[in-house]
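Researcher: Can you fold this with FE2/S2 (inorganic) cluster in place?
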Amino acid sequence: MAIIHDDFGRRRFLSQAVMGFGLLFGMGTLGLRFLQFLIPSPTPKRYEAVLIGAESRVPVGDAVPMDLGGQKIMVLRTNDGVVAFSRRCTDLGCLVSWSKEREQFVCPCHQGVFDKTGRNIAGPPPRPLDRFEVVKRGGQLYVNIQSS
Ligand code: FES
């Protein structure tokens, strides 16, 4: 602890203490802003239900490609129900297509293969196809897509 001998020393000590506190406060604020920049707060995702029509639009065992709000999707109908996947291959983003004979999604770029649940089963794709929620309301199907 500093020993203060006179008025001049006390003023100098107080002045340096105030400056030090201000500097610490400023650096703390800057550090906090920097952390906020590095770790942005998550913004809630917004979804929009887009009508795709009656279930009969998609024959059982087949898939129909659609463009919903700029998102290329594939709506597949099986005996288990209707599912929707992004057509973007999880390797490099080429558009996959449905092979009815193989009951698989295939990517033409590097022979990536996904099963009917969207799971990547062959080739370079590192993960399953993105999946969209399908909701049936009043006999009509809606796909929930992420809106911007
Ligand atoms: S982009 Fe689909 S396998 Fe490479």
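Model: Folded with FE2/S2 (inorganic) cluster in place. The chain has two domains: 1-41, 46-147.
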